[in-house]
Amino acid sequence: MPFIAQGKTNWKFLLIVIILAIIVGGGIWIYKHTFCLDCVGGPPIKPPEKKVIITTDKTEYELGETVGITIKNNSSIRNFIDYPIIENLVNNQWIPSGSVVWPGCWVTGGLVYLPLESNSSNSYRWDQKIKWCSSDMKDLNTYSKEVLSGTYRVKSRMITRTKSEAEDPNNISGQPAETIYSKEFTIKEKYETADWKTYSNKEYGFEVKYPQGLEITEGKPAGIPTVDFSNPVIGGVVFSISIFPDSNSLSLSFGSDWKKQGELSIDGHQASELTATHLSGSKIFTSTVYLITDKNTAVDFEDPNFSKISQEELNQILSTFKFIESYTACGCGCCGGVEPTLKCLYHSKGDDIQKIIEEDKQAAQNPLCPQMGCSHPIKYIYCD
């Protein structure tokens, strides 16, 4: 059918062409935006909604503040949920804090599932306390203490009911468990330390805040550099910080009398918590030590009943403990028995400790090192 017939426009033909163009173009548009998810300009692929989610009532808490936890089942079928536990971020790794939010004992790897009906939720309250069970797994309150400030999350496991379980909804054996997590939340310091003093030891690279009224004594008992913080009122040590030459001597100093209670994070470093009882007069006291193995450091606290410092203050002291960034440069190797010379670096001047580390590593690879011998160690540390 010609577009122009005998010098006149063929409107009937033109109309047919337009209708066909609309049909074909519309079909292509519908295909791209409805069926072809990979086409350029197609609709975004929405991730599937989570069937079960864990939420906390806040994203930031003060020390000692109760954490509200909700596990919600958004699906139309029943799911089975394990009791939630708390994890703490330590050295960029999540580790179980030993905390539980249910009235029973938590067993590593143990599964205790409870049904969570469709479109319903379970609520829990966590008192920010780390709890461990007794050896017979019957007593939850054998050991309990408050957590430190840091980053945490809630973890649980769930099993979805299958069709085969319809007749026996409590039968969940053999079903694979899926691990679910809440978003991260932070616990921050509650007690004010504005009027506290700061002790800084540049030689051994740490600092800590402490309440006014405590006296400081530096020494090297048994050759171990130690700083004691004492209460002159009672005439005794409240807490002490010791720097050991290596991790082996650190662990040997706390033998079988010390019982491991758990692990936690101190300034981003994983630490083991140990306790030991001792007799003073007619009273029994419990000392607590925190071993930071990768830093060969021990922070030792006396029993609060003896030191007359509240447990809240002891927790606060521990939360203010910080390692100062430092590096000891030796070039071809440090000369034995020689104390390093301290040299200050300043962030305000743009000093870069990483540059010093790289230069020292290159110096250690110098082929002339066997002839050059050892070097006097220089310890670089930021002083601002």
Question: Can you describe this structure?
Answer:
This protein is α+β, with helices and mostly antiparallel strands. The chain has four domains: 1-46, no CATH class; 52-188, Immunoglobulin-like (Sandwich), CATH 2.60.40.2950; 197-322, 3-Layer(aba) Sandwich (Protein Transport Mog1p, Chain A); 326-382, no CATH class. It has six helices and 28 strands. The chain has helices at residues 11-35, 247-252, 304-307, 311-319, 353-364, 369-372, and strands at residues 4-5, 8-9, 52-56, 60-62, 67-73, 79-82, 85-90, 93-100, 113-116, 120-126, 129-132, 143-146, 150-160, 178-181, 185-188, 197-201, 206-210, 215-219, 226-231, 236-243, 259-266, 269-280, 283-292, 297-301, 322-323, 326-329, 341-345, 378-382. Strands 4, 6, 7, 8, 9, 13, 14 and 15 form an eight-stranded mixed sheet that branches. A hairpin with a 4-residue loop joins strand 19 and strand 20 (236-243). The protein is extended, with a radius of gyration of 32 Å. The N and C termini lie far apart (89 Å). The model is unreliable at 106-110 (pLDDT under 50).
